[in-house]
């Protein structure tokens, strides 16, 4: 047994050394994510629908795969920028394109600042405030994602009433993550919004110097808000839409 | 770099604990982390969670010497969590109470066993939970074929070995005990559970070391531990069934009692959907609603890629729904109660089986409608020799039955190849009995007797059969965007019908006594067979990321054969009528080759292309198979068809779209057949085998805008169409007998222009919304009347307004008004320019009362007016209902409804166009009351709000 174990340990040690060696370079780079939205699941959350209508939607659209979007996170040890990979999305065969809404979510961990540029509800909003990280609960599951050992952590979003499950890399000591989510001891490589309503998965990670790429785009006629104002606006909109018996998440990020 | 990192981490620590800095006591936690051999570990993740709800309060990493230090910790109990690649995560309870600095000394991390590491590293989709000694496998990540036992599943788990006898070893040790949900499964032998349980029933497999059974019994821990495996059962995997049934009955005015019953049942699990539906009523509900249809067809309600006729892609999808007796699709009526009085029975079964690679759907649907219509109609025709007025009274009973089936298989052969096979069939039988009387008068003639009058008794019997098979193969190449598709299609349609025609025609102006009365007594039998073979090819080549080149080819060969025998039955020995009997064969060959270039970039999508198409018609007809040929048709028609489209996705929810295309419509079999239809002896229809396809040049431009912030929605657009070889029904009116003969023919020069717009915005958000809409249509139609081209210009205006008031959860009101004005001008007789008005006003109120009682009432007033012809009809329609939900789960509803409380309902249509103005009144379902009960297994949700298209 010990004879067997030794080479194993040795390999592990080698691996560990290699990983810790690599770690110095593993704090800057780009993550490309695939964001999949499962609409029938979101539809099922609409309180104004009867069980019959929810089941109907689920049964009719069960073969539909989640609609896919390509997202991009550029990160350094102290800052990160998240948005669409490109200005437009395309059909699977590339023959049809459509415009993506403006989205640039900037996090500055050193100066505890966050600036979000988000096109929604027919306007481009700029939300500026001090950095807010959700309160996380660290789980016991481990999983490998894109060659990195990840641990799960969960939190909740009280505005949209969601459970968020993040998988963060132990060996990438960066607190950044996709969407408006951050604040874990490692880079978030997967985010599951509300038990699979939306799944944001890592497609690839590239480590390279990117500090120069983290720039916020200029916004003409920005509508400025702070975090509180942003949350109030979302809450009001969600409540109004539910009252109008419309799915609010067609027009705001889920 | 490293220093900067550390600074950053400590910074993070402070910032995340910053809110607590005002508290008096602060603690520090420190320790050194090593592996089991004592090697100091660098950059180990250290996290501190609260003991109560395990919320992450601070985190950090070890330095090169394996040391870490977390500062500024508040008093309390915490869980320290240490994780490192390749090591077992460690959880340790830490108390901060008296000592300001807690030093845990050296913490040793144990390596993860190799087998487990491989599970984690190699099986990317396999989340593995490690809690102390327990390792938990999520079975979703390990695929086994359906019907596999737990043993088969265990063989898939890395780190677990199952030998031939079924003995299990996990992480090198023999598994002595297997429990199910923590309990022993029937016997001591661990194999009992693993061999007998189904893998599908297990959600998790946990492996851990436990005290021996003996130690547990005696309570003396001898220190020996044995490997134990626990199987956690799934909560019944997604599976369900639901159903509903509604039944009701009640009295009607001047009619026997009305009743309706409708039920459906669905059963489904992850892969399968089975549904049954049935309905019967005498309340004019002929088909399914969209909701019923979706429940019935499930995952096969909409299949986007089933169009086997490839062509120009405009980038937009379209759905074809509904259908009549000639259609293969299941009839859907959106709550429209139609005209006349109908008794309906329908029912069917649908089964879907869906996996990622194979999708199978099959269904059978039967429907039967017995319809009685009593109509009074009036038509004014404008002809060069003076206008005519025709009044018709008819009484018809029809009974149509149809059986439909369909089967569809979609098979994903691999990631690049897909095959779709579908087949649909129908079998219809119909009988109809029509009694009608017609009187034709010259408008200038003031005499009370008509010029011509007719009474007809037509009795029809028929059956028809149709089959359509399609095979579509799609291939994607490795190069992104390059694709190929091929399809083959075979359609068959056959019908067999007889008409017993008895007509008496009186011509009061006839000078010859023999011409004054004509009696027609005929037995007509018509047998028609149409078979069609189609094939299409499509190839798409990406020229660059933005440019795509698409090419397609279509082939179609249609073969028509019609055999019609007409016997004159006035005398006891029937004689053959050679002028009306026909044997006709025709082949219609169609070839199209097209190509187009598409550009797509950042939401701008453009397409430009063209196709060449050729039609070749070869036909011949005779009085009978054995008789000499009366005529031959031999024509070839070649045309070029351009196509352009634009779709532009603009910022802030604005969309612009438009296009230019040329539509080609081939004549229908009926239009081509050189057959005389004299079932209405005063209006004789004849086919035209010389017909060419009609071509329409179409231009359209539209714009959409939606502002979700202010809930404002706008769309509008224009379209224009110009007709070449339009198929119109030219008329020849016999000046003496006033019999009209009509025959389709090709005419060039007609056009239409349309404008539409719609605006919706809230007067007060969530409380009041206003919708405004309007459209305008201009058209020109050219029809030859007795050899003179009559040009009819029509102008139609429509404006509508809707106010939705939704002030409270218990009350809503909807009011709407629609005004429609149609003007028609006739070049043949400018004095007869006509204006028709169709107005509609509606008010709906819904109230929720205490005790789950709901009341709704709607009032509709329709006005049909044509002043020039003295037509004026107003129809007030008032419906009300009161209903109550019963029980805690609200599965039951009791409803009392009153339909057309004023008993004024009648179906009215009016029309001004071509060379005529017409109006018709048909008796339809009027006042009735109904008491009904509904039971829905999923519960009933009532709302005073009108649905947004979800029902």
UniProtKB/TrEMBL annotation, chain A:
NCBIfam families: GLPGLI (TIGR01200)
Signal peptide span: 1-22
Keywords: Signal
Species whose genome carries this gene: Fibrella forsythiae
InterPro entries per the UniProt record, alphabetical: GLPGLI (IPR005901)
Protein name in UniProt: GLPGLI family protein
TrEMBL record, chain B:
Pfam families xref list: CarboxypepD_reg, OMP_b-brl_3
Domain named Outer membrane protein beta-barrel: residues: 475-779, 789-935
Keywords annotated in UniProt: Receptor, Signal
InterPro entries: OMP_b-brl_3
Keyword Acetylation listed: no
Recorded superkingdom: Bacteria
Signal peptide per UniProt: 1-20
Name the record gives this protein: TonB-dependent receptor family protein
Biological source species: Fibrella forsythiae
């Amino acid at each position: 047994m010990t004879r067997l174990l030794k080479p194993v340990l040795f390999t592990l040690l080698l691996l560990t050394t290699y990983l810790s060696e690599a770690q110095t370079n593993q704090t800057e780079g780009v993550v490309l994510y695939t964001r999949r939205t499962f609409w029938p699941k979101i539809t099922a959350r609409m309180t104004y629908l009867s069980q019959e209508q929810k089941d109907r939607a689920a049964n009719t659209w069960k073969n539909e795969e989640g609609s896919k979007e390509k997202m991009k996170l550029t990160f350094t040890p102290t800052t990160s920028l998240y948005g669409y990979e490109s200005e437009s999305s395309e059909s699977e065969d590339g023959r049809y394109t459509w415009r993506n809404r403006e989205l640039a979510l900037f996090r500055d961990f050193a100066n505890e600042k966050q600036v979000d540029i988000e096109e929604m509800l027919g306007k481009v909003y700029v939300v500026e405030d001090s950095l807010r990280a959700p309160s996380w609960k660290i789980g016991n599951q481990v999983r490998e994602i894109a060659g990195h050992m990840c641990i799960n952590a969960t939190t909740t979003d009280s505005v949209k009433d969601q459970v968020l499950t993040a998988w963060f890399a132990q060996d990438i000591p960066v607190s950044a993550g996709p969407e408006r989510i951050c604040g874990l001891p490692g880079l978030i490589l997967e985010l599951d919004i509300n038990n699979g309503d939306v799944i944001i998965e890592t497609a690839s990670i590239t480590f390279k110097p990117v500090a120069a790429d983290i720039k916020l785009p200029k916004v003409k006629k920005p509508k400025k808000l702070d975090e509180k104002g942003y949350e109030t606006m979302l809450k009001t909109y969600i409540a109004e839409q539910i009252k109008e018996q419309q799915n609010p998440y067609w027009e705001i990020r889920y | 770099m490293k220093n900067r990192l550390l600074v950053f981490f400590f910074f993070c620590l402070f910032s995340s604990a910053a809110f607590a800095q005002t508290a008096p006591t602060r603690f520090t936690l420190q320790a050194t982390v090593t592996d089991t051999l004592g090697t100091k570990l660098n950059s180990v993740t250290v996290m501190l969670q609260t003991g109560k709800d395990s919320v992450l309060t601070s985190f950090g990493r070890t330095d090169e010497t394996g040391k870490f230090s977390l500062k500024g910790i508040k008093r309390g109990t915490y869980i320290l969590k240490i994780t490192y690649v390749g090591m077992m995560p460690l959880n340790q309870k830490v108390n901060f109470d008296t000592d300001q600095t807690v030093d845990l000394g050296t913490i040793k991390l144990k390596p993860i066993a190799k087998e487990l590491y491989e599970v984690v590293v190699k099986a990317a989709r396999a989340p593995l939970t490690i809690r102390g000694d327990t390792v938990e496998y999520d079975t979703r990540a390990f695929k086994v074929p359906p019907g596999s036992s737990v043993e088969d599943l265990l063989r898939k788990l890395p780190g677990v070995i199952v030998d031939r006898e079924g003995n299990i070893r996990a992480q090198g040790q023999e598994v002595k005990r297997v429990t199910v949900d923590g309990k022993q499964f029937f016997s001591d032998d661990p194999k009992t559970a693993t061999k007998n349980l189904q893998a599908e029933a297990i959600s998790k497999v946990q492996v851990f070391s436990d005290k021996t059974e003996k130690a547990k019994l005696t309570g003396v821990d001898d220190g020996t531990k044995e490997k134990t495996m626990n199987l956690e059962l799934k909560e019944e995997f997604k599976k369900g069934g639901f159903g509903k049934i509604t039944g009701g009955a009640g009295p009607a005015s001047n009619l026997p009692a009305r009743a309706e019953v409708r039920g459906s049942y669905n059963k489904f699990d992850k892969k399968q959907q089975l549904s049954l539906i049935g309905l019967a009523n005498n309340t004019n509900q002929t088909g399914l609603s969209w909701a019923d249809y979706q429940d019935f067809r499930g995952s096969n309600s909409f299949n986007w890629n089933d169009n086997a006729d490839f062509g120009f892609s405009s980038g937009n999808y379209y759905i074809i729904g509904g259908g009549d007796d000639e259609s293969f699709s299941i009839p859907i009526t959106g709550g429209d109660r139609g005209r006349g009085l109908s008794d309906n029975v329908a029912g069917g079964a649908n089964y879907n089986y869906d996996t990622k690679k194979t999708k199978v759907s099959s269904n059978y649907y039967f429907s039967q409608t017995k319809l009685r219509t009593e109509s009074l109609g009036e038509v004014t025709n404008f002809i060069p020799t003076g206008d005519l007025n025709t009044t018709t009274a008819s009484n018809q009973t029809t009974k149509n039955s149809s059986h439909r089936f369909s089967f569809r298989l979609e098979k994903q052969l691999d990631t690049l190849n897909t095959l779709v096979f579908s087949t649909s069939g129908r079998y219809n039988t119909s009988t109809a009995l029509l009694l009608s009387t017609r009187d034709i008068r010259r408008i200038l003639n003031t005499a009370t007797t008509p010029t011509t009058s007719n009474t007809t008794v037509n009795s029809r019997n028929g059956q028809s059969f149709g089959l359509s098979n399609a095979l579509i193969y799609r291939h994607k190449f490795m190069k992104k965007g390059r694709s190929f598709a091929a399809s083959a299609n075979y359609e068959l349609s056959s019908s067999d019908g007889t008409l017993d025609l008895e007509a008496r025609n009186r011509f009061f102006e006839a000078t010859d006594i023999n011409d004054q009365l004509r009696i027609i007594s005929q037995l007509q039998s018509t047998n028609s067979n149409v078979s069609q073979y189609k094939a299409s090819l499509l190839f798409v080549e990406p020229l660059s990321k933005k440019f795509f080149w698409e090419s397609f080819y279509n082939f179609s060969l249609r073969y028509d054969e019609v055999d019609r025998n007409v016997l004159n039955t006035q005398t006891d020995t029937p004689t053959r009528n050679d002028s009306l009997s026909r044997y006709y064969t025709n082949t219609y060959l169609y070839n199209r080759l097209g190509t187009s270039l598409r550009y797509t970039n950042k939401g701008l999508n453009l397409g430009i292309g063209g196709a060449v198409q050729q039609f070749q018609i070869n036909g011949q007809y005779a009085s009978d198979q054995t008789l000499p040929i009366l005529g031959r048709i031999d024509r070839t028609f070649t045309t070029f068809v351009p196509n352009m489209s634009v779709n532009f996705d603009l910022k802030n929810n604005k969309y612009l779209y438009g296009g230019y295309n040329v539509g080609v419509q081939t004549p229908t079999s009926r239009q081509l057949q050189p057959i005389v239809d004299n079932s209405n002896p005063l209006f004789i229809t004849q086919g035209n085998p010389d017909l060419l396809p009609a071509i329409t040049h179409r231009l359209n431009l539209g714009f959409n805008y939606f502002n979700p912030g202010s809930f404002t929605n706008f769309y509008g657009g224009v379209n224009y169409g110009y007709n070449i070889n339009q198929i119109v029904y030219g008329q020849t009116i016999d000046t003496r007998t006033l019999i009209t003969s009509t025959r389709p023919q090709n005419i060039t020069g007609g056009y239409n222009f349309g404008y539409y717009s719609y605006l919706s915005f809230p007067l007060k958000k969530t409380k009041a919304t206003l919708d405004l809409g309007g459209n305008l249509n201009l058209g020109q139609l050219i029809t030859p009347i007795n050899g003179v081209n009559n040009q009819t210009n029509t102008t139609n205006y429509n404006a509508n307004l809707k106010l939705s008031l939704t002030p409270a959860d218990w009350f809503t009101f909807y009011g709407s008004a629609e005004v429609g004005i149609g003007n028609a001008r006739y070049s043949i007789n400018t004095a007869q320019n006509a204006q028709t008005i169709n107005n509609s006003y509606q008010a709906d109120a819904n109230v929720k009362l205490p005790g789950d009682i709901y009341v709704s009432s709607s009032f509709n007033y329709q006005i049909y007016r044509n002043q020039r012809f003295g037509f004026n009809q107003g129809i007030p329609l008032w419906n009300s209902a009161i209903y109550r939900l019963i029980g805690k789960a609200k599965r039951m509803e009791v409803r009392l409804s009153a339909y057309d409380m004023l008993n004024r309902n009648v179906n009215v249509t009016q029309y001004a166009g071509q060379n005529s103005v017409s109006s018709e009144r048909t008796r339809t379902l009027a006042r009735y009351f109904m008491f009904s009960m509904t039971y829905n297994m999923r519960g009933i949700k009532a709302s005073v709000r009108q649905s947004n298209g979800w029902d």
